[in-house]
Amino acid sequence: MYTLISATPSPYARKVRITLAEKGVPFHLKTEVPWDSTTKTPEYNPLEKLPVLIPDNGAKPVYESHFILDWIEAKHPDPPMLPKDVDDRLFAKQVEVVADGICDALVLCFFEKQREHPSEPWRSRQMRKVEGGLQALATWVDQSNNGKFLIGDSLTLADVAAGSVLGYMAVRWPEHPWRTNFPQLKNYWESLDQRESFATTRPSPQKISDPIV
Questions:
Q1: How far is 183 from 24, CA to CA, in rounded Å?
Q2: Contacts of 165 (CB under 8 A, 6+ apart)
Q3: Quick one: which of 32, 89, 104, 212 is 20 to 30 A from 141 by CA?
Q4: CATH for 86-200, among 1.20.1050.10, 3.40.1440.60, 1.20.1260.10, 3.40.640.10?
Q5: String of b and e for 74-99 (b: at least 16 CB within 10 Å)?
Q6: Is the Cβ–Cβ distance between 153 and 145 less than 8 Å?
Q7: What CATH number labels 2-75?
């Protein structure tokens, strides 16, 4: 059985958890706080980031969420989480880039506001990326067939990525008005959140023991 090292609020790790669940691949979940000095993450990932997927056959650990998803898709192709059409596959990866970009900016903002003297210009710059990314996701939802999935009539990695970042915002940034500003995006997210794979992997806050400097 695989072992997935995860942080409870991580949208990156949640993408992997959802994908494994959708494919029916069993795994053991191990929780870490990668920011703390006690973390074992560097033993598995030289970049000291989560998630990390540890295969059960002695193979090397797999890290970086986008690569883990590609690895899972290659190792467990059924049911497919990427479209067969080349352009649709590329679009799915583009959505993942935007969703991860929103995540990256939000994580930077989260840590910045923990500092004793946070930089407002820095925060504003990151939030511009968030707003641009949300607008892109909302536009793609509008352009989809039925507003339920971004590509075709079934769940793909595009939806996993988009749904994960929106779920992260609901936990870490509940005051953000994206649900009011983009009602179609809100409806899309709420539909995804009813799936078992999403409902059982909802993020939760995690205490960071070490100071953020």
A1: 32
A2: 11, 99, 100, 102, 103, 106, 133
A3: 104
A4: 1.20.1050.10
A5: eebeeeebbbeeeebbebbbebbebb
A6: yes
A7: 3.40.30.10
Q: Using CA atoms, how far apart are residues 89 and 69, in angstroms rounded to an integer?
A: 13
Residue 208 — pLDDT band, cuts 50, 70, 90?
low
The torsion defined by the Cα of 92, 97, 101 and 107, in degrees rounded to 10, comes to 80
pTM for the full predicted model: 0.93
Instruction: Count H helices and E strands in the chain, helices first.
Output: 8, 4
As a whole number, mean pLDDT of residues 51-62 equals 92
Question: Does residue 211 have a pLDDT over 60?
Answer: no
DSSP state of 118: -
Q: Burial, 141: exposed, middle or buried (Cβ in 10 Å; 0-12, 13-18, 19+)?
A: buried
Q: Write out the H or E segment, with its range, that includes residue 5.
A: strand 2-6
Structure tokens at 15: 């993408």
Task: Identify residue 169 by its one-letter amino acid code.
Answer: M
Six-digit token pair at 61?
């650990």
Q: 62 and 55 in contact (C-beta within 8 Å)?
A: yes
Question: Domain-by-domain residue ranges, the chain?
Answer: 2-75, 86-200
| pLDDT for position 33 | 80
